[in-house]
Write the structure tokens for this entry.
Amino acid sequence: GQQVMQIPQYQHVQEGEDFTTYCNSSTTLSNIQWYKQRPGGHPVFLIQLVKSGEVKKQKRLTFQFGEAKKNSSLHITATQTTDVGTYFCAGVPDSSYKLIFGSGTRLLVRP
Amino acid sequence: ETGVTQTPRHLVMGMTNKKSLKCEQHLGHNAMYWYKQSAKKPLELMFVYNFKEQTENNSVPSRFSPECPNSSHLFLHLHTLQPEDSALYLCASSQDWISYGYTFGSGTRLTVV
């Protein structure tokens, strides 16, 4: 079936270091979204990417959608302790309307 | 608060009990969803309602029974659950089923004993 894979599963960084999580789909996506879930919390919508090759920025966060619309990445520059949480990508396959979530990357930041 | 309210926040139930989870959204959205979040598994879509009509049942066992009386309220009725059904149950809403950027509730942490 349709899958959205996300790596790495965990990332432990020193505060100030950069962080990147990658998302890959087995099928072409009409759009991809990113969510953040703090420990003990619920997923919170961050952004949606629709166009091939699209890049969007939110302060220290940079989101990219691949040219083939099958992969995406989230890059955080100079991590802070407030960035701790699990980051999920979620994609909508071209042939479907269902939003399929990746397994998430858990980010831990050492102060 | 996110605009999507779930009650209760925590629930412990026996395998022979019947209970219900409630979700209410104050965002004027027309689509509502139930997701299951277990440890070490991706978020699993369970049910989708669009304008009160169920548009998706993602092969969910019949011991989970959804109800959507109007566009603002969504229930998940539970009966004869198994311990492996213990998880965080999340409700979400969006403007409609083809517009995205879901707003999630805080979830109900369910433990089946």
Notes: Chain B touches chain A through 18 residues (CB under 8 Å).
